[in-house]
Amino acid sequence: MKKFIIKRLLISAVLLVLVAFIIYVLMRCLPTSYLEEVARAKSMQPGSKSFEEWMQQLSATYGMDKGIIPGFIDWCGRTLRGDFGDSWKWTVPVVDKFHDAIWISFAMGAVAFLLEILIAIPLGIIAATKQYSRTDYTITIIALACFSLPTFFFASLLKLLFCVKLGWFDLGGLIGRNYEQLSSLGQLADKTHHLVLPIITLVVISIGSLMRYTRTNMLEVLNADYIRTARAKGLSESKVIYHHAFRNTLIPLVTMLGGSLPGLFSGALITETLYAIPGIGYVSYQSMIAGDIPFSMFYMVFLAILTLLGNLISDILYAVVDPRVRIA
């Protein structure tokens, strides 16, 4: 296992460099750039230099006057020193802006992910164990409905019902009008209150696929020969399902859940935009459309690291959930 982990880490490091280079090339090829906006605004001031002169000065300041390969090498060198530069759009260090936005999205994603597991997996198991019953049909219909709901449509319905009609929540934002007058506990409760609808939106639109995935894999395991053998030995139905069948269902689930790690930090762009939540999804989108290369590079490479880490965790968990798995 130790050799396997070391080997995978080395392979992941090579893949990360290649992915970072591809991302850097794409960022440099963006049709727009925040530097152009700044240069254009400065060139319009009375007595100012021309647009081309400002572009040359700004490009030299931010290292954009170099070629792609020298620029990428320079970016890697600064990154290894922990210098990720300043965000062009937000005019603050990239790490500071990332830190301000990431924990909001992580809190939403983590709670939604936990609720998704607690709701979808048990319902998928129940649907599989009661195949072709009313319960199975009901769960299947719910799963298909959740899977088919567009995020913007469902979020708009929630806002219409709970914000406009009932008035239980604000239409958007992370804090209320009286946030500054509240105590520390009150401020936490106020933020939590504003995140209820976004979390419900994330849970509902994501549980459908996991329910169907769990049901399908559980049905495949329940039809296996060793399950019939376990029942023939006189084992209780609960032990057959939750001890023998569910353990083998975990292998494909681990693959799916391991790939969900980047989703905890990537943010929910549509949901955050609709509810005016200043999370990392919304911030990264605004940075990309503005051509903010420093922030976009940091964010996308961060997601690449999480993706590689999620795959490594999935491979390690295979041996944990199934002793038959051996890593050569």
Coarse shape: globular
| Overall tally of structural domains | 2
* Major sheet attributes: none
Helix content: over 70%
**Based on helices, strands and strand pairing, what is the structural class?**
mainly alpha
Q: What does this protein look like?
A:
This protein is mostly helical and 328 residues long. The protein folds into two domains: 2-80, no CATH class; 95-321, Orthogonal Bundle (MetI-like fold). It has 15 helices and no strands. The longest helix is centred in the middle third of the chain and has 36 residues, at 94-129. 27% of the residues are buried.
Concise account of the structure shown:
The protein is mainly alpha-helical.
Keywords:
328 residues, 75% helix, MetI-like fold, 0% strand
Secondary-structure blueprint:
Layout lengths: L1 H27 L5 H10 L7 H11 L6 H13 L13 H36 L4 H15 L2 H15 L18 H11 L1 H27 L2 H8 L4 H22 L2 H6 L2 H6 L5 H10 L3 H29 L7
